[in-house]
Structure formats: C-alpha cells, structure tokens
C-alpha cells in the first residue's frame, strides 16, 4: 500500500514523492531505509549547502546535517513537521552520537556536532547545522515533505499502539493527539486509514 504525497493538490505532480506505508517507515519514520532497514535511506537529502570554512570533509558535513535533524526530531516528539526555528535541547537530551563500521563518527554537544575522531575532530555549530538543514528543506521541498509524512506515519502508529483503555486513564485521553497526527498526514497527501488501529483510542480518533 502506498500514500501519495502531493504539494499542489489532489493530482500527482512533479513535486510528488511516494511514501509507502512499509514496516521501516512505521518503525523509523523519516530515517526509513530500503530492504527492511538494511538498504539506503528512502528519503535522503542530496543538496549540499556551503560547508563551514573550518570543515574539510563534505561527507562528514552532510552526515552531521542528518544527525542534527535526528536531534531536533527527538526533542519535538509528537510533532512530525520538523521545526528548525530553535535548537532547544539539541545536544543535551537527544541522541548523543553515532559510530560504527563505514560510518563517520559523530558526537553531539552543547556547541554542535563533532565530526571525526579526537583530537582531529572538527565541529559544526548548531546555528550552522540548522541553517544548512533549512536550506536543504527549502531547495528539496519534496524530500522534506516526504520525510515529514513518513515521520507522521511513524508517530501515528506508535501513539496509536502505546495507549490502551486502562482504568487509570480516566479523565485523560490521547485522542486529540492521535487525531492531530492523522490530520497532518492528510495535509501532506497521505492516508492515515492505511494504518491498522492498535487501540480503541486510535479507532476513535480515525473515525472522527
């Protein structure tokens, strides 16, 4: 099953990227990969913003931009549309770093993202990273919207399963949150009804 993300209206256009409601989209959202998570990213940004003067490796710069988005999405959980207007929490209570075979070592701090191994590592500051990602999203708007749509599917599936009908839930309901996520998916050209409701809450929200 697939959902067509359309930026200009109900009919497919050149600015449309197909977002399939597959297992890895539901599991990882914007970072979903092909081949059940073993292949390349499904919705990668390819535009390379100008690299800060103190950096020497464009591959590391692009990897740091991806990691900066991960940090922001972590700190705005429950909201799928990426907000790069602030860096609140980035580097302090989000993902701390990545490393591994064939990966560039990245480490987040209050200053920004350190690229490479100490002591030769270089730092891309948070203002540089957020400005770079904003440029990518403005130029590759169809990629940005596909990433947001995939993230929305991920959030809807997660919050639609994590809450269940329990006695201590009386007086509070996640229905408004689930309904908002479903509405965001529709706004981005997707179809929340493709997901299997994981709770009474989700069934209620999708029926409204």
Number of helices: 7
Shape, per Cα inertia axes: elongated
N- and C-termini, Cα separation? 23 Å
Along the chain, the helix and strand elements come as EEHHHEEEEHHHH
Number of domains: 2
Helix content: 40-55%
Strands of the widest sheet, in order across it, are 3-4-5-6
Mean pLDDT: 83
Assembly form of the protein: single chain
Secondary structure class reads alpha+beta
**Low-confidence segments, ≥5 residues, pLDDT <50?**
1-14
Count of DSSP E strands? 6
- Our estimate of the beta-strand percent is 5-15%
Q: Report the biggest beta sheet as strand number plus sense, adding barrel if it closes.
A: 4 strands, antiparallel
Radius of gyration: 18 Å
Description:
- The two termini are 23 Å apart.
- This protein has 2 domains: 2-43 and 140-207, no CATH class; 58-138, no CATH class.
- It has 208 residues and is α+β, with helices and mostly antiparallel strands.
- The chain is built from 7 helices and 6 strands; from the N terminus they run ββαααββββαααα.
- Helix 3 (58-75) packs across helix 4, helix 4 (126-139) packs across helix 5 and helix 5 runs antiparallel to helix 6 (175-187).
- The chain has a 4-stranded antiparallel β-sheet with strand order 3-4-5-6. Strands 1-2 form a two-stranded antiparallel ribbon.
């Amino acid at each position: 099953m697939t959902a067509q993300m359309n930026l200009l209206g109900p009919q497919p256009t050149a600015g449309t990227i197909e977002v399939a409601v597959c297992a890895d989209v539901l599991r990882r959202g914007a970072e979903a990969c092909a081949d059940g998570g073993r292949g390349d990213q499904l919705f990668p940004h390819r535009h390379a913003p100008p690299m800060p003067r103190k950096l020497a490796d464009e591959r590391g710069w692009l990897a740091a931009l991806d990691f900066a988005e991960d940090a922001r999405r972590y700190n705005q959980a429950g909201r799928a549309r990426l907000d790069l207007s602030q860096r609140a929490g980035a580097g302090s209570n989000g993902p701390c770093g990545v490393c591994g075979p064939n990966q560039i070592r990245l480490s987040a701090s209050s200053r920004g993202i350190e690229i490479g191994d100490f002591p030769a590592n270089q730092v891309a500051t948070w203002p540089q990273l957020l400005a770079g990602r904003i440029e990518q999203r403005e130029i590759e708007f169809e990629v940005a919207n596909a990433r947001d749509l995939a993230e929305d599917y991920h959030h809807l599936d997660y919050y639609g399963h994590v809450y269940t009908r329990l006695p201590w839930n009386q007086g509070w309901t996640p229905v408004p949150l689930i309904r908002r996520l479903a509405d965001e998916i529709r706004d981005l050209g997707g179809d929340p009804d493709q997901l299997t409701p994981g709770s009474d809450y989700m069934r209620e929200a999708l029926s409204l």
